[in-house]
Input
Amino acid sequence: MQEINASVMCVRGKCIQGFASYFLSFLDFPEILNHATKVKGKKVRVVWWPLLECPLEGYNIYYREVAKLKWRSVHVSSKESHRTLDLQCQKEYEIAVTARISSGETPLNHSNWWKVKTGQGMYYHLLYLR
Output
């Protein structure tokens, strides 16, 4: 995982000099910050920009294997902006984050899906080394 420290922040073509809380208010859904297409192992840490909507009730993280129809979901507190998922090894996943707000849930916006492939598990490496 990489940490972001920038004095100019750009999201979807909008750039702001210096980071301020008003920056997030124009987003209509939580923005996933992950961009890696592969991870080692099966633990996947999902990080997103929080949505500044009042009142924010929490987040839903949706994930599924690529080409599967059924989504699984995890509910996350409104105070969190990351969660580690324990997925299956050697699978490709689509992951999305929505916000639960007073008027409902933000859309499961396809432009914000993250596609990532998990790697080998530790057990596989131990068997392979024998």
